[in-house]
């Protein structure tokens, strides 16, 4: 069995610039972890805006140690409305089954790369803001899958490495995420969810619809601008 050690209390936080991963990082900081922030540029349609949000959020969190990783693999792969310019982002409402905005095995690849950073940094925790209810049918947002990845990561790293993947939002509704973020003074105005636009959110893609409905059910207004 691996020997569990925790020399320094660090959490590697995968941060997209969105509301869920931002709240997850704030929860890790509130729990006493030093944040190591990781952001992926994967040639998504809102890449520039998401990177801007990541930098603004990590500044608000006073994060010193951060990684921005550039991946062109997903653009070459295509097969997703987020990365393939020949596929339109759907705006007609939530799709049944796995939607066209699903990026094949994205979270698996992100978790693997973040795990390498966690091992290098001596971090005991890896945080990801997956949400089962609001995953839009994404198979890589399920708790069962994340737990399986944790086991695989610990099997494939050094004996002294012991990494727990925390997914603090996995069973929350979007309205509960909004409420929890407001309670903790998370700067939601710095976050971005839109799949289509980088200036003003479209308000009609799946991600915008989920976000707007969360704010509506929470009884508060979304602070970002919409078309």
In short:
By secondary structure, the protein is α/β, with parallel strands linked by helices. 37% of the residues lie in helices and 11% in strands. Helix 6 (174-183) crosses helix 7 (206-218).
Q: Kindly report the CATH topology.
A: Rossmann fold
Number of strands: 5
- The structural class is alpha/beta
Cα shape: globular
Low-confidence stretches: none
Helix content: 25-40%
Beta-strand portion reads: 5-15%
- Mean pLDDT equals 94
User: Any idea what the CATH superfamily is called?
Assistant: HUPs
CA radius of gyration is 17 Å
CATH uppermost class: Alpha Beta
Count of all domains: 1
Helical stretch tally: 7
| Strand order, sheet with most strands | 3-2-1-4-5
> Could you state the order of secondary-structure elements as H and E?
EHEHEHHEHEHH
- End-to-end Cα distance: 55 Å
Describe the structure in your own words.
- The protein starts with 9 loop residues before the first strand and ends in a 9-residue tail after the last helix.
- The longest helix is centred in the middle third of the chain and has 16 residues, at 106-121.
- The protein has a five-stranded parallel beta sheet with strand order 3-2-1-4-5, sandwiched between helices.
- The mean pLDDT is 94.
- It has helices at 19-30, 47-60, 73-77, 106-121, 143-155, 174-183, 206-218, and strands spanning 10-14, 34-41, 65-70, 125-127, 164-166.
- Helix 6 (174-183) crosses helix 7.
- 37% of the residues lie in helices and 11% in strands.
- It has one domain: Rossmann fold (3-Layer(aba) Sandwich).
- Strand 4, helix 5 (143-155) and strand 5 (164-166) form a beta-alpha-beta unit.
- With 227 residues, the protein is of the alpha/beta class.
